[in-house]
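Friendly challenge for the regulars: who can give me the structure tokens for this chain first? No prize, just bragging rights.
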Amino acid sequence: MTTTDRRDDDAETLADLLGGARGAIDATIPPVAFVAGWLLSGELWVATVVALGLAALVAVWQWRKGRKPRAVLLGVAGVAVAAMIALRTGRAEDFFVVQLAANAASALVWVVSIAFRWPLLGVVVGLILRQRGTWRRDPVLLRGYALASWVWVCQYVIRVAIFGPLWWSGDVVSLAIARVGLSWPLVALCLVVSWFVLRRSLPEDHPGLRHPQVSAA
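First reply, four minutes later:
Bragging rights claimed.
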């Protein structure tokens, strides 16, 4: 493995591999639109129409930018489910129940993946790099992905700790503000910190993420 290879690998970050925080930014638009529509009209159905309308526009924009159709449809479906829950209960704050539940579930899944030695960060990056399970046969990479995955667990726990009390108190405006503050800024921070943890866990002579060191045994 040459020095040039390692240097090129160092220049590539998790943000490059995982697509950055663009998707997280787009995901904040429908919730903010929902709350704005609700505040201005006082009607949940108006807020639903506004949120779904903007979700559809964002979806079309993402699709034209080359995002996979299934991912685009899932984003719109998530907004639709959240709006349906709010309409059903008659409580605007319930629009954020899906977000709260999804983060709680995500934290649990990431913890389980680490416990079973299939850290999800490694799974995702491994799929992107088309390594299948090769990275798991490199003890150094396996340990690095496990440590970095804890950063992602913390991300979801932080959201649950903030969203939970706000939802319980029915503070819809604060929920919308938290939705923005805990989306792309937190994702960007998580990417930076998890990348730092991952890189610091690899010794200097390790060739990098793209080149797992698999022992003959």
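The chain is about 75% helix and 0% strand. The radius of gyration is 20 Å. Your move, everyone else.
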